[in-house]
Each structure stands twice: as structure tokens, then as C-alpha cells.
Amino acid sequence: MKLELRGITKKFGTFTANDDITVVVESGQVHSLLGENGAGKSTLMNVLFGLYEATAGQVLIDDSPVQFHGPGDAMAAGIGMVHQHFMLVPVFTVAENVALGDEVTRAAGILDLEATRRKIREISDRFGFHVDPDALVEDLPVGVQQRVEIIKALVREAKVLILDEPTAVLTPQETDELLNIIRQLRDAGTSVVFISHKLREVKEISDVITVIRRGKVVGHAEPTASAAELASLMVGRSVSLSLEKEPATPGEETFSIQNLTVLADNGQVLLDDVSFGIHNGEILAVAGVQGNGQTELTEAIMGLLDHASGKVVLHGENLLGRSVKSIINSGVGFVPEDRSTDGLVGTFTVAENLVLNQYDRAPFARGMNMRGSVIAENAEQKIGEFDIRTQGPQADAGTLSGGNQQKVVMARELSRPLKLFIASQPTRGVDVGSIEFLHRRIIAERDGGTPVLIVSTELDEVVELADRIAVLYKGQLVGIVPGDTPRDTLGLMMAGASADEAGAIDIDPVPPTDTSTGTPVANPEEEHGNE
Amino acid sequence: MSTATTTPSSRTGSIAPAIRNWGAPVTLAVLALVALVGFAIGSPHASARFRISADADALQVPDVVLGTTLVGWITAVVLLALAAYSFALTTRAQPAPRWLVPAFAAVWVIAFLVWVIGSANNPNVYFSGLIAGSFTLAIPLIFGSLSGVLCERSGVINIAIEGQLLAGAFGAAIVGSITHSLLAGVLAAIVASVVVSMVLAVFSIKYMVNQVIVGVVLNVLVAGLTSFLFSTVMKDNSSLFNSPPSFHNIRIPGLADIPVFGPILFDQTILGYGMYLAVFLVWFGLFKTRWGLRVRAVGEHPKAADTVGIKVNTMRFWNVTLAGVVAGVGGAFFTLVTSSSFNKEMTAGQGFIALAALIFGRWNPIGAFFAALLFGFSLNLSFVLTILGTPVPSQFMQMLPYVVTVFAVAGLAGKSRPPASNGIPYVKE
Questions:
Q1: Is the minimum CB–CB distance between A89 and chain B shorter than 8 Å?
Q2: B314-331 pLDDT per residue, tens
Q3: Confidence of residue B360 (pLDDT cuts 50, 70, 90)
């Protein structure tokens, strides 16, 4: 089946998400849409799938125009979509999820799930999916959930399969499996639209690549094009893909966590007896597939979670059990993983957001009063220093683009002397240009002698920043390995294999220039390089 | 000891501080102590007589006579043991077995019953009648809970059950009186309740007003409106506007004479039999049919339902409307069965007890049925005990159903999981 999008334009109010986009997907082809977050790829696919109505333009199937008024129409026409956030009901079984909307019924609308189970087994066997139709979806790993989504499309006899950022939640091994599945599907005659911002995967799987930037098609490329070419096409200027950084010169170990265990309200173990330390002037990056305890790790350190036990020691003092405010005041900078809900107050101004952690202290406050002029001065200075693109310090933070919002958060957290810097997903949803800038700031903080803890689900970012890499799997620390560990090895560890099994060296802990042994009872007066 | 990496295989064996919920063991312990002090130590040293068969029954079962002291001590010991077991389990962070709370509740109720009957001026109760009365009182609660199940499974919070029931009761009374027709009365009840439902549906689905607020406002509105109409129209002309006909029991000969179970299963009004049918149909519909699968999907993850072509808001609208139909029948029960006329605010908070039954029953029609029965039983017990004349002041007895509700929902229901998108309006981008 040949699918053509001709001159698609989609506007949200005054904002043009898609501007006259034309894409042709030939039968039995893997066609990649490459673009940064926010370039308009997902919008385009939602138009195609009937979730949005296009402002202008046409969708053609086998050269005849079609009109979709909802996802039902799109599926009836043979288009299946695997959304970035899975569209599965967690408390339903696989069979119920697959049946939903396309149920096989006996008389009087009584469900015949057996028929659906049979179809699932058939497809599962044909492609080697290993999916149990009676498993509850919430109990399945994300990789399997994604296969359930693919089965959903195949049961509906999709001729075109759209995969929206399918690898965002997968380990490298799962990604490889997915790419294999895509090849099988293509060979069986299904067209695949592969949406991604990850150059490596796009190069590996595509027959044709279309690059989208700011809602427009900016070019086509062959899969043989180099990563640098693709990146510059995607960003619109040449970018350096690898970060220059000096080797770390780790100092004393001033921060450590010992036997940290975190439970959920229902008693589920989210973080299981995790211990590690970070030296001054060192970046420890935590790798792992999303949802393996990384969020809980950072939030527990910040005192945001109940049910945490163990020790979080900074300069000899245990932070666990102290209030968030007291932890912040003891010199911990924290960039939360979701800037829009936890990092910023969208309806506050940029200037206000820049002092959220210090608004009640000198120099920003005197007694009960906040000092507007000092806050404004601070804002002007940070906006310049971090190159925050805003209409001005009085603009609402919510009106900024993702990258600039992240710069606001980063500017705030890095604007005072720190004893520990924690950044969770520091560049999620940030454009490539800003990523480079933010990474440089993080490394500058390290070089200033602060211990830095980075949590990222983007392996590229982990490898780029880390001096040492800790891998979390199901709340347990699988191991700590050197920053130059090959990504295949990391991938195995992210799937639960120990460092030994994965063929890495588990450094336990790294001892380079550090002479201190024993529990870090360093005296609090002795502060290194935090100026 | 330096900060060591603990690999999954070499756990250090530190004991994880598990999450312990002390609500259940503490509640059980308090109740067990109440039983010990009140029913065992405070036994009236009398005997309680439970009559199983009525004098007219063909099959005669001998009366059960129980000594209050003996039963008081036995049950107190059992209850304390169960509470201790619950404490032990919680200390070890183990989940309580499913039978624990129901078993505790059953033993406690037996202890309480024997004690309270034994201390009454007339220590003699017709047990079958007590149970049958409980069912009668539970029927509108069950209809109300089913209304809640239908709404909330599709993702709309229904606080307006009280208003639906009251509107139904009023509609049935006034139309039934004018037309002298039971059928017309029931239909009017359904229409009145559906109107309430549709207001809820429009405001919560289309205009996305906070659903709890809409529900509360509707309850106040219906109470005010029916009270106003009652005093301006009905009161002065009650023979014309407020004397609806009543449903009569349809007794299935033979089967209705089975002790205890006969009256509740085989001696009911059409609405009573309809209740059993409604519970089954809602359960079967929700869990065995295409419609039910879609309803549950819409209540759990509306976007997922939308992406497979299910019209989320349409589905929700009709579900809320259907909930109105069910609640309307429950409302009709007040004026066409239990009472022979409408009275101001006659539902007296039973819509809220129905809501509690829905939560206690974990959004499941069968669970809601049994929860409503428990509340119906406590309601009836308070009536019966007031008549028998007990040492407990009658005002306290009238508090009983509400106390049971609070304990059931707060202390013993545990963590029940509502539909994930309950109360969240669905907006298409």
C-alpha cells in the first residue's frame, strides 16, 4: 500500500506545527522521519491517524484521497500506530487490550476473547514475540508492551505501521530486537514509518529518510549519509556531536549513599539497598531504562520521599530524614526530571523562577520582604549568562520553549556554591544546540570540584558525561563501571546482567587519588573547591 | 568499610523497613476490646431467643436460644485472637488473608446481636424477619450503588446518587398518585432521575466542571426543589398528589417458606426481583460483553480507547444516563414499596451510604451488593432494637448504620483501586 501525505499543514492557534509537509511512503519500505523533539513529527502522524484534523492538505492511499475523522477510520484504511506513550489499559490483559475496539463477539455482544487469544498466539508465533495473551499488561516489561501494541496493529491488518519514537523506552538490546521485527514486517510487505531523533537507529533501519525541522521538510537523505550530515540537517547548523572534556581529577569522596532503600506506598521495593559514593570533581551517571528506580534515587536524596531508609551522607552529615529545604540549604542543587511540573512554576515569571530556591534569603530577601530590584538584576545576569531566549525577565516561564525552560532551571540550580549537584534527565526534550551548552555547564561544575550525579535514560548522554557509570535495574545497583565502557556492555547491564556477565570491569569503588577509607566522616569544615 | 557496590546477588541482608498499614489491626483491636468489655464482661447474664420460623410457616425450625455470657466470652476470645493475628501479620509486613475481615465482622455481629437481644426488655427476636427487613432496606441502596458503578466505571464520579434517588422517589409519588398506575410511577421515577443524571453528564463531560462539585450541587438542588414542591403542591392535596399505589409482594408458593432464605429470595416485589436481575446484568455486562470492555477502558485509560476508535465522551454520557435509569428504580422503591407517600428529604443520606457501598464493594456490582446488604442490615437492626427496647439509647441505635459505614470504608476497606481516570474529564487535543 502506498501512502502519501500531500501538503499537510496543521496550525494550533497562531502556532504552525506542520507547514506544507509532503511525504510519500512506498509499499514495503521503512521510511524514517527524523527531527528534533518538537519539530512536528508526532503532530504529523496524529493528523495521519485521524487524531487531529489537518488545517490544509490531503492524505492519499494508493493515489486516492481519503478523509479520516477519527482513529477508527485510519485503522479501517489499514494504518496502525504505535504511540510513544503506549495506548494500553494497564489493568486489562493482553487479549482484552488487543480486542478493545475490534472485539470478536458472539450473539448479544458477548465477548469471545478466545478468538482474540488465538490471533495473538498466531502473530506472536509468526514473529517470535513471546507474548502471553492472558498476562496483565501492567506486569509486562515495556519492550513486551510495545510488542502488544504492534500486535494490536497487526490484528487489525495494518498495511502501514507508524512507530512514534519507539526506542525511547527500550534498552539497546530491546532496540535491536525491535529493529529486527521491523525488518521482518517490511519483508512481509508492511510499510513502516519510523519516527525518531536518534541518528544511529534511523541510519540502521531506513530505506528513505525525511528530515523535519520546525514543522517543515528540510530535506531527504540516504541511510548512507553520515551522522554529522544528518545532525546538521536536523538542527540547521553544524553541530559537534562529541563533547570535548578533560579527564576528571577526582578529589575526596564527600558524598555517599549507604544502603538506600525506598518503598512505594504499597510496599513495593523501588530502590533496593543501593550504596555508592561520588568524589569531588567527578560525574557519576546513573544509566538504566526508565522506571528502574532512578527517579526515586534522586528524590530520596532530596528528601522528597517517605519510606526511605539507609543513609545519604554529604560531608559527614546524614541528609536522610531532613526537610527538603534544609537539604537545599546544605548546598545541594537539583534539576528534577520534569521541568514543567517539578522544575518551574509555569505561571511565575522567569525572574521569580530563577530565585525559587533562595527567594527567602539574602540577597533576594530582607526580613519578610522580597527585593524586586535584586531579583530583576539577578534575572538579567542569568539570562545573559545562560543565553535564555525569553521576551524578558517578566515573561511567564511557561511561555518559554523546552530548552530555554531547562536553562532557567539549570541557571537557578548552578547559581550558588554547591556541595553536590544532581541533574535528572538534564536535556530531555531539549534541542541539540542547547544540549551542547547544558552539557558544558555540567562539566564546568564538575571541574569546579563539585560531585555531580546525573540520571539519564539516554545512553548517549550517560556515555558523554560520565566519569563513572552506575547501572540501575529494578531498583538494584547492577554495578559501577568506568565511563568508557562500551554501550553494548551497558545495554546488557541495563537488562539486569551483572558487570561480570556483561564483560565489564566493576570498579568498586573507584579509588584513584582518594586516600580516605572508612565511612566518610570528613569534617564539615573541610570543603573542597566549592567556591 | 568503604561505600561498596552491592550487586543483586550479594545482598547485605539489611532489613528493609516495610510499609505497614496499622489501620486494620488497630481497628480490629479496638472492636475486639469493645466486645470483651461490653459483651463478655458486661454480659446481662440472660439468654437471647432467635426465632427462625414464623408460627404460620409450614416448615418449623426450633428457636435458637443462646446464653449471653457464654457467647460473649467465646466470641471475645475469638475476636481478640483474630486481632492479635492481624497485628502479627502487620508486624511481619505480610498481607492479611481475604477472609480475615469478613470473619471478624461476622463474629462481631454475632456477639453484638446476642448481647443486645439478651439485654433487651423482650429478649426475643424473629430472625428471619430481621434478615428479610435488611434486604428490603438494602434494595434502594443496591440500585444506588449500581448507578455509581455504571458512572464511575466509565470515569464520571457520581456524588449525585442521593439526588437521583430523591428525584426518583418524588417522581414516582406524584405521577403514581395522579395516574394510579405503578408502571407510570416507575417510569416517572426513571425520567426524574435521568434528568438529574443528564445535568451531571452535561456539566461534567461537556463543560468539564469539577464532578464532585456538580454532584453536591445537584443533591442540594433536588432536595430543595422536591421539598418546595412537597410543601406547595403535595402537602395540601395529599390525596390527589401524594398517595401513590404500592407494589405487592409476589410470593412463590413453597419456596417462600424456606426459613431465612425464603422471604428474601422468593417473597419480593417486582422491584425486589428486579434488583437481583439488575445486579446480575450490570456484572455480566461490565465483565463479559463488548460494551463492558469499552466502558472499563474508557474509565481506565480514555486515550487508549480513543485511539482504537471508541467515542469516549459519548460512551460516558450514555453510561451516566443509564445510571440515572437504575437509580430511578431505586428511588421509586422508597415511595412505591417502603413508604406509601413522599416526604421531605426522605432518602435521608442513603444515597451517600450507597456511595460508600460502591467504594467498600470496590467498584464491582457484586461487591457493592454485599456491602449494601451490610448497611441494610445495620439499618434494620437499629429499627428492630429500638422496638425491642435495649439499654442503649435509641439515638445511638440510629447512628449504627452510619458508624458501620465509617468503619467499613475508612478502617477495613483497605486500599481499593478506583478506575484510573475516575473524575478526570477527557479532552481531545
A1: yes
A2: 999 999 999 999 999 999
A3: confident
**Any chain B CB within 8 A of the CB of A505?**
no
**A517 in contact with chain B, both atoms CB, cutoff 8 A:** yes
Facing residue for B7 by CB, picked from A46, A103, A479:
A479
Give the tens place of pLDDT for each residue, A141-173.
Answer: 888 999 999 999 999 999 999 999 888 777 777
Q: Say yes or no: A52 contacts chain B, CB-CB below 8 A.
A: yes
Subunit contact A307:B306, Cβ cutoff 8 A: no
Q: Is the pLDDT of residue A514 over 90?
A: no
Say how far apart CA B162 and CA B111 lie, in whole Å. 33
Measured in degrees and rounded to the nearest 5, phi and psi for residue B307 equal -70, -10
Q: What is the CA radius of gyration of chain B?
A: 24
A475 to chain B: nearest residue by CA? B8
B231 touches chain A (CB under 8 A): no
Strands A216-221, A208-213: pairing is antiparallel
**Structure confidence at residue B209 (pLDDT):** 94
Contact A205, A179 (CB under 8 A): yes
- Distance (Å, rounded) from C-alpha B176 to C-alpha B188? 8
Question: With 80 as the cut, is the pLDDT of residue A483 above it?
Answer: yes
Query: CB within 8 A of B202, min separation 6: which ones?
Result: none
Which residues, 6 or more positions from B225, have their beta carbon under 8 angstroms from its beta carbon?
none
> Residue A285 forms beta bridges with which residues?
A454, A469
* Contact call for A91 and B300, based on CB within 8 A: yes
In this structure, what C-alpha cell is assigned to residue A56?
490544509
Asked if A72 and B309 come within 8 Å (Cβ–Cβ), the reply is yes
Cβ contacts of B11 on chain A, cutoff 8 Å: 273
HSE-up of residue B400 (Cα within 13 Å, Cβ side): 23
> How far apart are the C-alpha atoms of B114 and B68, rounded to whole Å?
6
Mean pLDDT, to the nearest integer, of B342-361? 90
Strands A30-34 and A191-196: parallel
Query: Is the CB of residue A83 less than 8 Å from the CB of residue A89?
Result: no
pLDDT of residue B341: 92
Interface test with A, best of B288, B290, B415, B429 (most A CBs within 10 A): B290
CA dihedral over A312, A315, A316, A317, signed as positive or negative: negative
Three cell numbers, residue A31: 521510511
| Angle subtended at Cα A495 by Cα A493 and Cα A501, rounded to the nearest 5 degrees | 45
Give helix B23-34 / helix B100-118 axis angle, nearest 10°: 20
User: At B255, is the secondary structure helix, strand, or coil?
Assistant: helix
Check if the beta carbon of residue A389 is closer than 8 Å to that of residue A401.
yes
Q: Enter the DSSP assignment of B280.
A: H
Q: Phi first, then psi: what are they for A454, rounded to 5°?
A: -115, 135
Decide: B404 and B375 in contact? Cβ < 8 Å. Answer: yes
Nearest to A468 by CA among A413, A512, A517: A512
Intra-chain end-to-end CA distance of chain B, in Å: 55
* pTM of the predicted protein model: 0.79
B63 and A CB contact within 8 Å:
no
**Cα–Cα distance for residue pair A466/A443, rounded to 1 Å:** 10
DSSP A313-354: EETTEE-TTS-HHHHHHTTEEEE-S-IIIII--TTSBHHHHT
Q: Which amino acid is at B23?
A: G
Alpha-carbon distances, residue B169 vs A219, A445, B162, B176, B343 (angstroms)? 69, 71, 11, 10, 9
Instruction: Please tell me the distance from the alpha carbon of residue A502 to that of residue A287, in angstroms, as a whole number.
Output: 15
The H or E element spanning position A12 is strand A3-12
- Model ipTM? 0.83
B295's enclosing H/E stretch is: helix B290-300
